[in-house]
Amino acid sequence: MSDVLILGPDTLLGSGLAACLLASTEHKVQWLVEGLTGGAENDLSSLVLESATAIASRRGPACGTAPCSSRFTLLARHSRHEALSADEIWLLSEKPGPLPFQTADAVRERRQDVLWLIENSGARTLNYVGSIYECAGNGPSENGPAPSADEQEVLAVCAGRGISARSFLTSWTVGEQFLPYSAGGGMLGLLSALNNVIAEVQERMPEYFDYQALRIAAPSGSALNIVSAERAVEHMLAIASKEQARGERRCIVSSEDTPWQEFCDLLGEIYGISLLTVENREELTGIDRLLESSAPALAVALARPGISAFQEGEAQGLEIDEAGQRALLKAIRKKQEKARLERNQRAAALTEKLEKRTIPREGSDLTYLIAGETGDYVLLLNALGQGLNYWSRLIDRLMHNYRVIVWETRGMFSESRPLRLSDHVEDIEAIMRQENIESCHLVGWCTGPQAAVEFYVRRPEAVRDMVFLNCAFKFADHPEFETAYGKNLETLCRVMLDKPATTPSIRRSLSVSPDIDIDLMDESDIKGLAMKVLALTNVDLRNDVLAPFQTEVTMINYAHQILDLATYPTLEHSPKVEVPILVLGCECDQVAKPAKASTAAQLFPDTRHIELPGASHYSFYDRPELVAGIMENFFHDPLKSKRNGSSGKSK
């Protein structure tokens, strides 16, 4: 029995390779795929094993799920420089699209880890699988386009270790066996981005695409080369089973390119929107640019037509005709919609199902919820006065790998003394003490980052790192950082405390969602229209944002707490904060301008800053898979752990 090691995040080709290898009793397979979030690890394992059983059944005697599972190991995380032994390696090197939180340094570090694994695996053979689109612009070579820098680097390592290596360059692969939320470049990246953008926009304004098109910039005459993932895997395995000379390269492409406009029309039909091609990028709206930034591989592919010229004579049967493309796209779209519906239903019921625990705190109870049973602790620091629905989708993703704790800030309904920021900081400490937590990841949203920093000042040893989501720090020297919402809220809070008699009238004005006055038929300024839609609050949250204005008591207490924040010079502590911080801002945040995030990131010694295009103040609700991926990659950043040493473990 030979040991096969698969490296790389391409869940489509990777699952196909693993399944085909497991369908034969001759192979034991390990697959290292970084960056899986939520329940994706279990879903991917199930996908591989089910596919392996189906393939074995077609070939003859079924291998059965149990025998397959005993020969398959999926590694979502791997200890750095811990060798994995293998006789043969498949390196899936195609870029998987915009990996959440992947700095250039982190990418290089992970690349070095992969090369180290290759050198120390004991493998005799390596199969490099890359994208022909990544190197087609490099000019021709003796056997296909000139190799990319990644390919050259891998082949050099193999040559130095005496490992027999061959290369496969694939065009865009498509297959029904995929995970709706998995990372992917190429076709899967495009379909995932399309699905996410449509859903996010419709959750802000459901009827938007009834009146407006989604535009994609593409040169005239653009085309895509599309192959069947299943047949591509079979073809590569057939070649790899033969003894071949070191350095052989094969192009796994279709004999015909698909005109982009035809494929664009088909996508529009399947996804139920008007999808237009424009040559000038200046015509793109903010919504169009969101799609473009979410699927960067598309621009690379459309800029390099004529891929069919690289097809080899023996690579037959890889193409998919229009009927086949339509059937596959329909199946994929159906799975995407089913996965989103199931995610939303789980999230909607989540907080009612989580375990509740209570701590008596100065005459009132501090009630918190716990999700997840294993992993590090992640404490979610909520915005003042807000409920927990905002967190439901993110918790749904994080709870598979972490123990997540969340609670509503106290002091909204009580008529006792107004709570101060120091009280909320003490609540964090009380929870950590009751749960015997030695250290944790702190994730603060809106006003939460201020509580996170104040807690760090008291208990620096208890904080592994911090994440600031849409931070609302007060910058006294930068009044231009304040949004209209922030300015109006602070003014109204002062008025209520100075003149309590005005509270009823202020409450009436704030306790009703404002009318949305957007004319989707107005073609005079489609760019401005798109930005207005992106700035809207998700329809699911429009009642939640009114929580502080439920009663006159909640409004007065909320006003006290909001104004109290300004009395704490929290940012003066920034030079003393030694743990890494991830600061996430959002382009269309109407509560906390993205300038606050970018400026805050400059004040702390060890920060990473990301600004999400087209995202709102509620990005972690609108894009839970993306934000969860960003957070998990930050928590496990190899450069961070190398620089700071190993952090303390939670009990």
Could you give a short description of this structure?
The protein has 651 residues and is an alpha/beta fold.
Which structural category do the helix and sheet elements fall into? alpha/beta
Characterize the overall form: globular
Helices, by number, come to 24
Can you give the helix content as a percent range?
40-55%
Q: Uncertain segments of ≥5 residues (pLDDT<50)?
A: 62-66, 645-651
Proportion of beta-strand residues:
15-25%
Mean pLDDT reading: 89
- State Rg: 26 Å
Query: Quaternary arrangement of the chains shown?
Result: single chain
Spatially, the strands of the biggest sheet line up as 16-17-19-18-20-21-22-23
C-alpha termini separation:
40 Å
Number of strands: 23
Major sheet characteristics: 8 strands, mixed
How is the secondary structure organized here?
Blueprint: E1 2-7, H1 11-23, E2 27-32, H2 40-59, H3 65-70, E3 72-75, E4 88-92, H4 104-120, E5 125-131, H5 132-135, E6 140-141, E7 144-145, H6 149-161, E8 164-170, E9 172-174, H7 186-204, H8 208-211, E10 214-217, E11 223-224, E12 226-228, H9 229-240, E13 248-252, E14 258-259, H10 260-271, E15 275-278, H11 286-294, H12 296-302, H13 322-353, E16 355-361, E17 364-371, E18 377-381, H14 392-398, E19 403-407, H15 421-434, E20 440-445, H16 448-458, E21 463-469, H17 484-498, H18 503-510, H19 526-534, H20 552-565, E22 581-586, H21 594-603, E23 607-612, H22 619-622, H23 624-635, H24 638-644
Parallel strand pairs: 1-2, 1-4, 2-3, 4-5, 5-8, 8-13, 9-12, 10-15, 18-19, 18-20, 20-21, 21-22, 22-23
Antiparallel strand pairs: 6-7, 11-14, 16-17, 17-19
